[in-house]
Amino acid sequence: MKENSNEEPNGHVQRGLKARHVSMIALGGCIGTGLFVASGSAISQAGPGGALTAYVLMGMMVYFLMTSLGEMATNMPISGSFAAYSAKYVDPALGFAMGWNYWFNWAITVAVDISTAALVMKFWLPNVPAWIWSAIALLLIFLINAMSVSTFGETEFWMSLIKVVTIVIFLIVGTLTIFGIMGGHFVGMRNFSIKQAPFVGGVPAILTVFVVAGFSFQGTELVGITAGESKDPQHSVPKAINEVFWRIILFYILTIFVIAAIIPYTSHSLLGSSATDIAISPFTLVFQRAGLAAAASIMNAVILTSVISSANSGMYASTRMLYSLSNSGYAPKKLGETAANGIPYYSLLVTTAVSLLTFISSIAGPKLYMWLVAASGLTGFIAWFGIAISHYRFRRAFIKQGHDLSELKYHAKLFPFGPVLCLILCILVIVGQNPSAFASFDWKQILVTYMSVPLVLILYIVYKLKHHTKIIPLEKVDVSPAHKDEDLSKLNEK
């Protein structure tokens, strides 16, 4: 294989992502149906005030999580970073569990997104079988990810840009509608005070919306994955974290506010908004209130682009995680091999095979589709939990071993408050996700809601018992910087 400035020897991914690619991949990965569609259900469940509270709190948590990740990713920028950080800074067994958990999360999410793409296409061509659109979407995603990483980055950049421009236009149109400049009448803030608004359902409702907000924000951690293929991670990762966070907060909070101001939380359209009812988007409803006749078709096209972009990022993330698991000795060695263009093709093929679940979903109907959504729901919070505890241990070990913070390229904000807050909120959301299911002993709902929790525990316990791993003492934690994908198999030694 020929080597150039972007290529590394066989077995390593390429560092072909530019700073703008890293920013847009992280931004694009978390702007999808969670914002364009499911945001309506968040407002209907907790009211405008409750939805805003949930998104603001989740935004704060994500901010601290991103800075924690940034500190580790600039110190050790590798693909599939979360498994490596958990293994190096906490316990090899935790790295094993977190890595497979994250791969499972995104592999299933790709299947969900591709199923959603088929539902979007029904808006225009309702008589064409859904599996055909799913097959086309999956093939497209596969081909994009099979090309060089720079091609993937460029494709994701432009798809993400479409979403960003749409949100900006939406905020402008929405603001004009609130003040009556568009739509014919002044809306103002009256929908924030109708019936039980602004807070509906109290704290339990906010907690319920918390996971909707969390699912919407998931994807920001892709910065850690892309660090391994960034040309200049010490520069691009901090830049991406600072830019992406403020953009997301700006987009999400203002978007929720505009929707809540124009559409009352009692609207049946909001009550019906979910990822499985793609035709009902709060964005479409707001554009229609503003008098834009072609709103439905335009928003449907944007949502389709959004879903493909999210699946594209998901395929990338899950493929790189599987590649990292192989390099860490946690998965078959074959999965760590790369082609001449730096793509871990075996990992890509295995992940694509898992995403074929979408065909079963398309044929079996919405029930299995909802099971797939549920299966990937809490795994994102578990991954965030792993990032937070890894950073807490990393920083404590770094100081304990006599290092100075000036040695780090990027500093996480408000340590240890940041990672501790993330740990507490993640546990709160995971435990309190569906307490009513326990109260009524509804074991089916318990399984659907919490199935990812026992999966991670089983992975952790089995690996720990098999390899007799222990939590690494702080004085022995390896906090040295790295710039290549490392073979972490030495951590698996007894």
TrEMBL record:
Topology in membrane: Multi-pass membrane protein
Task: Mention any Pfam family matching this sequence.
Answer: AA_permease
Alphabetical list of InterPro entries matching this protein: AA-permease/SLC12A_dom (IPR004841), APC_YAT (IPR050524)
| Keyword match Transmembrane helix | yes
Q: Which residues cross the membrane?
A: 21-43, 49-66, 103-125, 131-152, 164-187, 199-223, 244-266, 286-311, 343-363, 369-389, 410-431, 443-463
Q: Which GO terms describe its cellular component?
A: membrane
Domain Amino acid permease/ SLC12A: from-to ranges: 21-470
Instruction: Please tell me where this protein is predominantly located.
Output: membrane
Q: Which UniProt keywords apply?
A: Amino-acid transport, Membrane, Transmembrane, Transmembrane helix, Transport
Recorded GO MF terms: amino acid transmembrane transporter activity
Give the UniProt subcellular location, in the record's own words.
Membrane
The protein's name is Gamma-aminobutyrate permease
